[in-house]
């Protein structure tokens, strides 16, 4: 069976440019790859045919010979293989041909950079930055705006981010011809490595910018206004797109992530959207009942009634006096926990009054009565 015309195989015209040939091959390789056509038994042969065509047409000398003599340029009729052509396209360097599109086919699965092309893309996205920001509980309650200073990098204004003096565009690397990698033949194998001249960028700067030394970016400190929404808590993350490190040689900037830490409060303890406040009350107030004034997180005051006979640890709820939920969703409550205080530094008269109280005190304290009842039962059990 006669071979098909190589231009026909790739679906291009005879006068197609090198870029058009490469683009056409990439499309065919993606379309015909056997892993993507497991139900088509002819895909492998078609895939090899496309590789053979590209191996010839991508090389200017091979292409010129093919344009003049056709397939006969590489078969035995032309002397069993022309010098420099590797014994014909059927025996050509498959790895060399296929590696040009390998990253396009599988780059996403191999963790390649956005935009593909591996080392052939000179622009690199800047790194993301993290900034830890501490706020008070009051600021977390009401929301606030903070001005922060971020150490970062920005595009060099002297070279407009190109890395070249005067803003000139970098030139194609002469060593790797813009591929970012070089190949070395070692017997049957072809070994690829990162280009030592351009470091895999594919381009070089002949006259580096004196301000950024060819990097295209400089170290700066920037001030940034950050809006802190009501309801934030420790661990809340706020993203500022494009406010991270500047990209290398014109690449896009990374993002800035602000991590919130809410400082401990002297009066309130937070539990999600609820607040807890421990309030001391006198022994007399706890026994007779009364009122205490407690602070609220919004800066206000609330009067709380203390029931007669209140014990330490008793909790009372103030509805709607807690923290707001982040991005809406209601407001928590505030819980008051009573701490009954035993008086100290008593005067002689106060001690006398307490002794009189002790003499007439009846055993009707609920917790004490329950405790001593259990003690009595315990002792009785030990005697049997």
Automatic annotation (TrEMBL):
Stretches forming CXXCXGXG motif repeats? 156-163, 173-180, 195-202, 209-216
> What PROSITE patterns is this protein classified in?
DNAJ_1, DNAJ_2, ZF_CR
Known InterPro entries for this protein?
Answer: DnaJ, DnaJ_C, DnaJ_domain, DnaJ_domain_CS, HSP40/DnaJ_pept-bd, HSP_DnaJ_Cys-rich_dom, HSP_DnaJ_Cys-rich_dom_sf, J_dom_sf
What cofactors are annotated for this protein? Answer: Zn(2+)
Q: How is the cofactor bound?
A: Binds 2 Zn(2+) ions per monomer.
Residue intervals of the J domain: 5-70
| Residues that, per the record, bind Zn(2+) 1 | 156, 159, 209, 212
What Pfam families would the database entry show? Answer: DnaJ, DnaJ_C, DnaJ_CXXCXGXG
- Which part of the chain is the CR-type domain? 143-221
A cellular-component GO term for this protein = cytoplasm
Give its localization: Cytoplasm
Spell out the residue ranges making up region: Disordered: 26-46
For Zn(2+) 2, which residues are the binding ones?
173, 176, 195, 198
Give residue ranges of zinc fingers (CR-type): 143-221
Provide any one GO MF term from the record: heat shock protein binding
**Which BP terms in the Gene Ontology apply to this protein?**
DNA replication; protein refolding; response to heat
What keywords does the record list, in alphabetical order? Chaperone, Cytoplasm, DNA replication, Metal-binding, Repeat, Stress response, Zinc, Zinc-finger
Would the keyword Aminoacyl-tRNA synthetase turn up in this protein's UniProt record? no
The domain section of the record reads: The J domain is necessary and sufficient to stimulate DnaK ATPase activity. Zinc center 1 plays an important role in the autonomous, DnaK-independent chaperone activity of DnaJ. Zinc center 2 is essential for interaction with DnaK and for DnaJ activity.
Give the similarity note.
Belongs to the DnaJ family.
According to the record's subunit comment, the protein's assembly and interactions are: Homodimer.
User: Which HAMAP family did the record assign?
Assistant: DnaJ (MF_01152)
Give the function comment from the record: Participates actively in the response to hyperosmotic and heat shock by preventing the aggregation of stress-denatured proteins and by disaggregating proteins, also in an autonomous, DnaK-independent fashion. Unfolded proteins bind initially to DnaJ; upon interaction with the DnaJ-bound protein, DnaK hydrolyzes its bound ATP, resulting in the formation of a stable complex. GrpE releases ADP from DnaK; ATP binding to DnaK triggers the release of the substrate protein, thus completing the reaction cycle.
- Please state what the protein is called: Chaperone protein DnaJ
Query: Could you tell me the gene encoding this protein?
Result: dnaJ
């Amino acid at each position: 069976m006669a071979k098909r015309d190589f231009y026909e195989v790739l679906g291009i015209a005879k006068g197609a440019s090198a870029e058009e040939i490469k683009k056409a091959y990439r499309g065919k390789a993606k379309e015909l790859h056997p892993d993507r056509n497991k139900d088509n038994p002819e895909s492998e042969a078609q895939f090899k045919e496309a590789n053979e065509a590209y191996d010839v047409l991508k090389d200017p000398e091979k292409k010129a010979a093919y344009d003049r003599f056709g397939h006969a340029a590489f078969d035995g009729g032309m002397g069993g293989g022309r010098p420099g052509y590797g014994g014909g396209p059927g025996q050509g360097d498959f790895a060399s041909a296929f590696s040009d599109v390998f990253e396009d086919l599988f780059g996403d699965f191999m963790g390649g950079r956005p935009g593909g092309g591996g080392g052939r893309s000179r622009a690199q996205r800047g790194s993301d930055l993290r900034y830890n920001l501490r706020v008070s509980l009051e600021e977390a309650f009401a929301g606030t705006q903070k001005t922060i200073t971020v150490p970062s990098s920005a595009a060099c204004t002297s070279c407009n981010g190109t890395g070249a003096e005067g803003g000139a565009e970098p030139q194609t690397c002469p060593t790797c011809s813009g591929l970012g990698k070089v190949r070395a033949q070692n017997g049957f194998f072809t070994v690829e490595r990162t280009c030592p001249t351009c470091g895999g960028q594919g381009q070089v700067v002949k006259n580096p910018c004196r301000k950024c030394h060819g990097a295209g970016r400089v170290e700066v400190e920037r001030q940034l206004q950050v809006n802190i929404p009501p309801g934030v808590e420790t661990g809340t993350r706020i993203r500022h797109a494009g406010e991270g490190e500047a990209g290398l040689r014109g690449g896009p900037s990374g993002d800035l992530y602000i991590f919130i830490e809410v400082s401990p409060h002297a009066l309130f303890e937070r539990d999600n959207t609820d607040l807890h406040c421990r309030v001391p009350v006198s022994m007399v107030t706890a026994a007779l009942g009364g009122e205490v004034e407690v602070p609220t997180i919004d800066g206000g005051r609330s009067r709380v009634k203390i029931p007669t006979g209140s014990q330490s640890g008793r909790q009372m709820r103030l509805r709607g006096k807690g923290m707001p939920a982040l991005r809406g969703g209601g407001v928590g409550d505030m819980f008051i926990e009573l701490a009954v205080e035993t008086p100290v530094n008593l005067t002689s008269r106060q001690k006398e009054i307490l002794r009189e109280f002790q003499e007439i005190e009846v055993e009707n304290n609920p917790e004490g009565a329950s405790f001593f009842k259990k003690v009595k039962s315990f002792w009785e059990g030990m005697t049997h």
